[in-house]
Amino acid sequence: MPTPLGPVVASGAFADVYAIDEARVLRRYRSGRDASGEVQLLAHVVAHGFPAPGCSRRTAPTWSWSACTGRPCCRPSSPA
Fold first, then answer.
1. Residues 11-64: pLDDT tens digits?
2. What would the CATH number be for the domain defined by 8-66?
3. 9 — phi, psi (to 5°)?
4. CA angle 29–40–20, rounded 5-degree value
5. What gap in Å lies between CA 56 and CA 34, rounded to an integer?
6. Element spanning 39, H or E
7. How far apart are CA 61 and CA 78, in angstroms?
8. CB 54, CB 68: distance < 8 Å
């Protein structure tokens, strides 16, 4: 059963992220590309103790993740 799309919470060059509920988001690649490698990489880093969102359901090009809060990884932190 497809996951209903909620409001767009982020949009990038290749994908859009929709809110499913307060704990999950759905990411969908516009091109339909398969992101299995990305899912495997995140599972690998989580298995080694690094913080990363967990994938709860995947059907390429769409999958749902646990929502994360905090500073984006690509934005430099403010100087102390």
1. 989 889 898 888 888 888 888 888 788 888 888 888 898 888 877 776 666 767
2. 3.30.200.20
3. -110, -15
4. 45
5. 16
6. helix 36-47
7. 35
8. no
From the CB of residue 71, how many other CB atoms can be counted at a distance below 10 Å? 9
- Cβ atoms of 33 and 60 within 8 Å: the answer is yes
Q: Which amino acid is at 45?
A: V
What's this model's pTM, rounded to 2 decimal places?
A: 0.66
Count CA within 13 A, CB hemisphere, residue 28: 14
Instruction: Give phi and psi for 36, each to the nearest 5.
Output: -55, -40
Domain extents for the chain?
Answer: 8-66
